[in-house]
Design a protein that fits this description.
The protein is α/β, with parallel strands linked by helices and 278 residues long. α1 (11-22) crosses α7 (195-204), α3 crosses α4 and α4 (82-102) runs parallel beside α5. 37% of the residues lie in helices and 17% in strands. Its EC number is 4.2.1.46. This is dTDP-glucose 4,6-dehydratase.
């Protein structure tokens, strides 16, 4: 198949290109930066320099590529600019969906997040509602609604990504906070997924039916559980306690649907994944 990969130079995109090429697909991969085209080519994709916020440019780019599937892995988080990331989810996804529909593309696979479910102790499934009071909701709701307009729109609700190139890598934003001692043990839920497993899910999703799918590992955990393990892997001091009256936030997330579709995380738990942090 011909694949148009939006966000080819990102954490998932860099991992996904080789998987797509090895599976026999022809890949056109986008970046906003000319200097990244060499690395995209080296991975086996044809680079496309385009800004998804430029509606006319992205329409032209998709039309030229004539893809069978558009894979949307765009984010704008390298500088922790959450407003820019929300704009990309809202306007960028709108432009990408419109371009795909205009070009007659039948399927889109898009990156979403798994930590917007309403709070609760039981693992959230894809049928549970998202919490509209949380800051990322507007961008995520716009993204998922737009992708649902496609004849077959698959939304991958990724857990917290870790591994090389992510915020949890030794030089990443979360690692820096841990080393600075600014994170505390708390009963806040996180469901993780290694970036390699997230990319593998995007490949598998080429054959999945429409709808959202949680892409998380097998062991949701509270900060009180995972932070000491992660801190030790970084060689950072043991974090302090948030206090015995700290309220539980977030919710564990179920990966049962993804498992039923044939995906299985190779790193089943952050416990083993964090041990490889270097």
């Amino acid at each position: 198949m011909k694949i148009f990969l939006a966000g080819a130079a990102g954490v998932i995109g860099r991992r996904l290109i080789p998987l797509l090429v090895q599976a026999g697909h022809e890949v056109a991969g986008t970046t906003r930066r000319e200097e990244r085209t060499g690395s995209i080519s080296a991975l086996g994709a044809a680079p496309v320099v385009v800004d998804v916020l430029d509606a006319a440019a992205i329409r032209a780019a998709v039309a030229r590529a004539r893809p069978d599937v558009v894979v949307h892995q765009l984010t704008d988080l390298s500088g922790e600019d959450f407003e820019a990331n929300s704009q990309l989810r809202i306007e960028g996804t709108r432009n990408l969906v419109d371009a795909a529909k205009e070009a007659g593309v039948e399927a889109m696979i898009a990156q979403s997040i798994a930590w917007l479910y309403v709070a609760g102790e039981t693992p959230a499934t894809e049928d549970d509602p998202l919490d509209s009071s949380l800051p990322p909701y507007a961008g995520i709701a716009a993204l998922e609604d737009a992708v649902a307009e496609m004849p077959r729109g698959v939304v991958l609700r990724y857990g917290a990504l870790y591994g090389p190139g992510t915020w949890y890598a030794p030089g990443g934003a979360i690692a820096q906070r841990v080393k600075a001692g600014s994170l505390r043990l708390a009963p806040a839920w996180t469901s993780f997924v290694h970036a390699d497993d997230a990319a593998a899910a995007a490949l598998a999703a080429l054959d999945w039916p429409a709808g959202p799918v949680n892409i998380v590992d097998d062991e949701p955990a509270t900060t009180a559980e995972w932070l000491p393990v992660y801190s030790a892997a970084l060689g950072a001091p043991t974090p302090g306690n948030a206090g015995k009256h700290a309220a539980t936030t977030g919710r564990p997330v179920s990966n049962a649907k993804a498992l039923g579709l044939g995906w299985k995380p190779q790193t089943a738990s952050w416990r083993t994944g964090f041990a490889d942090t270097k």
